[in-house]
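Quiz preparation item.
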């Protein structure tokens, strides 16, 4: 008895190291597993987020679900605003416009997507006006205390009975003290016939990423580039499906001139303009070097409506048309249309996903019996090189079809799924298309009716994700790639948390989450092959994957420690790596399990890199603390 008491503290302070021996060869080629991104029109991820348009409700678009409104707009001075469905609208896609009526200075002011960032740079704007007007317009950016930050006069080209587009630029001289700024467009109503003018499609862009017209917010693109995602799954999950069959995402209504894009009621509580459309998604992929994983609508809407087998052909054809539009030569009808819209070079599509979560919402039976096969057969026949993915793994996958697995859960349940892929066959590769620990550990599991999802990823959740990702890395021959979901959240209007990156109108406030840092570390250290490892110790609290980068011949050890009462000592050898070999060891830690990276706050993830040397037997000896994520790479 006495001995035990004496020995206990001794054991705790020098507990035996976890000894891991990594073989020289014999693992699996893993060039497949990539860390990527996914797009879902949620949380003003695209519009009001990545899509750089600054004017909210720019074309008064509406639907039965979200009727058109004057949301975000107010009248200048004593003028009045009214929505109109004119008999001669700007376009059939944009039937509703605004009438601005007044006596002296009249106009309208927009509050932006909960603020407008103003700094010394050039803003590019345009609007359509209709009505007989001989004066000029004033476009301006103004601070909340009335200071003019930028202003310009635009000479009227308006003529009676015609919609005429006006373009302008605005240059701000200094940085506004906050983002509580507005954009306004005004005119001299005394010089307008009847004292009013009609306006539509009022737009303003800051400088965009790669200076693309109709492009993307530079700071958020930079944040994504910092993660270096290798693929993009788009155009979303639930957003692709739509609430009803008619409400599905229609690729053909997101292309061409902005005035011909009707927009659509998203699943996630707002009307979208369609400005951030199929071509913009492809340009996004081009600009960040991401492999597109294109999802096509598969005959299931979120309300459970399913297209019957006899009526499915038109939707299969629609998917083939979309592929022709993206990949067809200019000699094809739709390839020629793409060229007309500025992209003569065909894009390459290597992955197509059929639908989204077709195991849910009354979808599985029809998906298994005819929906998936109809798309799989048609796409595979016309495009044999495309890897077609089912949107679930709850079914027998035919031919060379792959699947998509989504996981939202409490952190503890990510640990129990560490070995989930060990028994999978590599014949049907899996995409981990949506992965996130969302709800705090509660001993039970995720409760979808509970709204206590975390606002941001928090450290223990990110470590739990790392453990699950290590399970995927160990089986990387079976996994195409993995992405956190959703990716972006505008903190001023969101429906879902947590997300990978959170932001508001102020680019200086963007928060890269704790999970961002974990994904980034694993992504930076890509393994081209796994290498088998042996150890006396079972997995837990230390979890790891071992491999090689065949280009640099660097050996790689990726690890995470979850739920340990003490630091975990590790003794790691790689067969063929001798005494004195140097390795870089990077360890991520955070102040505590509930630490988060918040919008406007500091990064709380501590990244520590040290160089260590292999000992006499080629062993690398180091300790990994509780709740840490680490990567060791030999030089
Ligand atoms: C314009 O038309 C839409 C669609 O029919 C309708 O919902 C809306 O109320 C109309 N708006 C006005 C101002 O008449
Ligand atoms: C922004 O300005 C408006 C008035 O223009 C004011 O009501 C609001 O409180 C301001 N918001 C902030 C965060 O300063
Ligand atoms: C887009 O395609 C759908 C078929 O999926 C069709 O019903 C719709 O009319 C098309 N829209 C336009 C603007 O051509
Ligand atoms: C982590 O530790 C807690 C507290 O001891 C325990 O309830 C939980 O089951 C552990 N989780 C895992 C995945 O081991
Ligand atoms: C949500 O979870 C946090 C962290 O576990 C806890 O402190 C808080 O009480 C929970 N809130 C509700 C409403 O359950
Ligand atoms: C390689 O793949 C096979 C078959 O999936 C699997 O049994 C084996 O454990 C894998 N080896 C490694 C080192 O991951
Ligand atoms: C390790 O992390 C777990 C959470 O998984 C926590 O409950 C425990 O107190 C931590 N142990 C130490 C020694 O910090």
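Solution:
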């Amino acid at each position: 008895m006495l001995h035990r008491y004496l020995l206990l503290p001794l054991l705790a302070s020098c507990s035996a190291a976890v000894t891991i021996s990594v073989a020289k060869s014999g693992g699996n080629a893993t060039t497949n597993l990539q860390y990527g991104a996914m797009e879902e029109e949620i949380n003003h991820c695209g519009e009001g987020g990545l899509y750089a348009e600054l004017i909210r409700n720019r074309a008064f678009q509406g639907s039965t679900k979200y009727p058109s409104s004057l949301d975000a707009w107010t009248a200048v001075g004593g003028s009045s605003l009214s929505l109109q469905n004119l008999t001669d609208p700007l376009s059939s896609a944009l039937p509703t416009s605004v009438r601005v009526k007044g006596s002296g200075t009249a106009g309208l002011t927009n509050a932006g997507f909960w603020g407008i960032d103003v700094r010394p740079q050039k803003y590019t704007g345009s609007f359509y006006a209709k009505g007989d007007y001989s004066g000029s317009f004033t476009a301006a950016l103004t601070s909340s205390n009335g200071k003019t930050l930028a202003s310009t006069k635009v000479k009227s080209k308006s003529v009676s009975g015609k919609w005429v587009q006006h373009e302008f630029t605005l240059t701000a001289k200094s940085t506004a003290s906050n983002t509580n700024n507005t954009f306004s467009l005004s005119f001299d109503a005394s010089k307008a016939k009847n004292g009013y003018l009609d306006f539509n499609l009022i737009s303003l862009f800051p400088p965009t990423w790669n200076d693309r017209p109709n492009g993307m917010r530079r700071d958020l693109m930079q944040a994504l580039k910092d993660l270096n995602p290798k693929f993009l799954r788009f155009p979303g999950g639930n957003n692709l499906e739509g609430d009803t069959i008619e409400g599905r995402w229609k690729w053909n209504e997101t292309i061409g001139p902005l005035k011909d894009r009707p927009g659509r009621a998203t699943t996630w509580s707002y009307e979208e303009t369609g400005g951030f459309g199929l071509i913009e998604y492809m340009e996004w992929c081009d600009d960040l070097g991401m492999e597109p994983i294109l999802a096509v609508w598969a005959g299931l809407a979120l309300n459970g409506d399913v297209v019957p087998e006899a009526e499915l052909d038109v939707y299969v054809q629609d998917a083939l048309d979309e592929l022709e539009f993206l990949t067809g030569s200019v000699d094809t009808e739709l390839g020629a249309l793409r060229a007309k819209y500025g992209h003569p070079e065909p894009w390459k599509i290597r992955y197509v996903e059929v639908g989204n979560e077709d195991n849910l919402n009354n979808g599985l039976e029809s998906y298994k019996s005819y929906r998936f096969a109809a798309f799989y057969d048609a796409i595979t026949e016309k495009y044999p090189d495309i890897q077609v993915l089912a949107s679930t793994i709850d079914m027998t996958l035919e031919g060379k079809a792959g699947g998509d697995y989504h996981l939202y859960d409490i952190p503890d349940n990510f640990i129990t799924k560490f070995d989930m892929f060990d028994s999978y066959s590599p014949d049907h590769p899996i995409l981990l298309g949506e992965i996130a620990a969302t709800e705090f550990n509660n001993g039970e599991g995720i409760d979808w009716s509970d709204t206590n999802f975390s606002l941001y990823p928090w450290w223990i959740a990110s470590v739990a994700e790392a453990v699950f990702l290590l399970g995927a890395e160990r089986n990387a021959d079976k996994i195409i790639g993995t992405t956190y979901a959703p990716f972006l959240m505008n903190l001023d209007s969101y429906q879902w948390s947590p997300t990978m990156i959170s932001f508001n109108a102020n680019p200086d406030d963007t928060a890269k989450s704790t999970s961002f840092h974990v994904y980034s570390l694993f992504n930076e250290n890509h393994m081209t092959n796994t290498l088998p490892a042996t150890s006396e110790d079972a997995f837990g609290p230390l979890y790891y994957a071992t491999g090689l980068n065949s280009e640099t011949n660097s050996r790689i050890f990726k690890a995470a420690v979850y739920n340990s009462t003490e630091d975990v000592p590790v003794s790691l050898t790689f067969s063929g790596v001798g005494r004195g070999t140097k390795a870089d060891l990077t360890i991520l830690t955070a102040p505590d399990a509930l630490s988060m990276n918040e919008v406007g706050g500091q990064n709380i993830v501590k990244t520590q890199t040290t160089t260590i040397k292999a000992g006499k037997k080629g062993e690398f000896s180091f300790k990994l603390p509780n709740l840490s994520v680490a990567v060791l790479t030999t030089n």
